[in-house]
Amino acid sequence: MPPSNKWCVRWAVCLSFVLALIPWTRGSLNCHKMCICASNIVSCSKVNLTGVPNDLPNYTSVLDLSFNNISGLRAQWTKHKLPNLHNLLLSHNRLNFLSSEAFVFVKQLRYLDLSSNLLRQLDEFIFEPLVHLEVLLLYNNHISQIDRTAFSGLNSLQKLYLSQNLVVRFPSELIKDKSRPERMSLLDLSSNRIKVLPIADLQALSAWVKDGMYLHNNTLICDCELYSLMAHWYIRRLNSAVDFKDDHTCVHPSPEKRVLRVYDLNTHMNCSTFKETDEEFYLDQTISLRCDTRHRDMSKTWMLPGNIILTPGNNHSYNVDKDGSLKITSIKPEESGVYTCFAVSEYLNETLYVVVKVHNFTLNGNNDSLNTAYTTLVGCLASVVLVLIYLYLTPCRCFCCPDQGKSKNLQEDSIHSSMLSVTPTHEDMATKAELNRHVAFIDPKDLQGQNGKVNPNGEEEVDEEAMQGKGKRKKSVADSISSVFSDTPIVV
User: Fold this and answer.
1) pTM for this entry
2) How far, in Å, CA of 31 to CA of 39, rounded?
3) Phi and psi (nearest 5°) for 227?
4) For the chain, what is the total number of helices (H) and then of strands (E)?
5) Are 391 and 485 a contacting pair, CB within 8 Å?
């Protein structure tokens, strides 16, 4: 055989060998004969599978196993790791069991659909390996028990669908600060059997989280706290409240167990009509005002009272945090007013108003305004009372004293000489003083030259020569200077 022919034969043998290897190579990748393989997508939907096909290609990024009869997902449902698998669809099967190690070989999952199956419970740490998972669909199952650690490790979770199940306990671990996925913007718990909500935890959530918190069609117990919560969401025009307004119902805690609309509780249960309250703070307190928008990533600008736009560096007592909150250091009463936040994004513009009221005293209760105005008022009232007591509640006059002699000579009362009369006459001054007595402060100097001298005891020393033949007599204490403060009105 010529050398050229031998060379051609060798090439033909090699080519046939390579062609023979091609089907074997495809068989090793095991694109199941009932599945459809397109690039890195493997679709085995609606082919009555009872288990996951073995030896899936390791380059698979999307695996669709929906609408089959798969009953469980065991630890080694795939023989080797699938590092590129991002989407796994297992909806509309007969899944009633998930192994605790079912997702060990698919840690790169970002989308997992387990909806419309027969799952009854979620065990502890079941999804912990899925640190990159963003969307988890569990709706339309029979889930009644959720372990508190079932969603641990889902740090990247953004959307969780748990509607149309038998859930009784609200999974509060999904909304608490320490355990809540930071970027979770949708939690659908509608159409379950939840009776009580963690009101305080829900109120503390940002508006962009509450905007995707769906709670309608549950068996919630009616109370005014539930009404206030949902009324606030509706006033803020949150989608979760507005889109399903008529489906927010609750069960009245009465023997009849009536089903009422949550937004009608202000009439059925006399709940007070919800009203947004002002933010109240104290003198020298450092505060933070939230720009609580319905979308997370928005550009935010603040306007201070008096229509002053806050710009970086124009006031050292105002600072805007990374999340858009306005921080005010040592707030003063004159900084009370309406603070406006303008939020802008590609899809939405929002304007939020925060009304701030600052009390003129510190948080410890040192009320400066009370120390001035209130104390002054009390002092004035006390002064008026003391004056009235001084004028009208003095001891009785001495005409009621039993030892007062009838021979008292009222005309010799030296104090009467200082009384002021309506007309300057020399009539009987003692008689007019009884009818027209007024408070008088007598200077002892003014009494010089009168019929006697005043001593410190209020007694009058009578001149012996003037009283010759009559004996000595002491002026009664009752008729001393203090006796002029009686209850008899005096005209001056």
Assistant:
1) 0.65
2) 11
3) -60, -45
4) 9, 25
5) yes
